[in-house]
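User: Show me a protein chain along with its predicted structure.
Assistant: Here is one chain, sequence first, then structure tokens.
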Amino acid sequence: MQLPEAKNKFIEAWGKLGSEWGINRTMAQVHALLLVSPEALTTEEVMEQLSISRGNANMTLRDLMDWGLVEKQHKAGERKEYYFADKDTWTIARQVAKERKKRELDPVLKVLNELAAVEGDQKDPAFKTFKKSLTDINKLATNVNRTLETMIKAEENWFWGSIFKMFK
């Protein structure tokens, strides 16, 4: 397999994987393209290489910048904007974990903490079941949150070493 075919296969696979994780397929494909590009690309180059519209490219690049996965760069003497993705996979994983935590886990923890103050008859089976379910989910979510916080702050070697120690 030659490089252009391999590059296209990777972009397609990353797009599919992204959609499995709840990320827009085009967003994942643009990220993949920038990951495997040695130089920063313009919006036009992204549009051309992925056959997407200007509006889609602009919106997707903005979303990737919001996620902290892509940076906008300017080159001296040029008016065009260039986009570059960090190639360090640990940095990418930490940034995705940070964003997913902020967008998904933090709101759930907030609701669970609000619901922890629910009042009711301790003898009522419906209340007891509700309270136990909330307590169990809150415990799990809190542990996931702690793990993500550790991952976000940790260096790669320390984190994986700690994880592997747990499975010994």
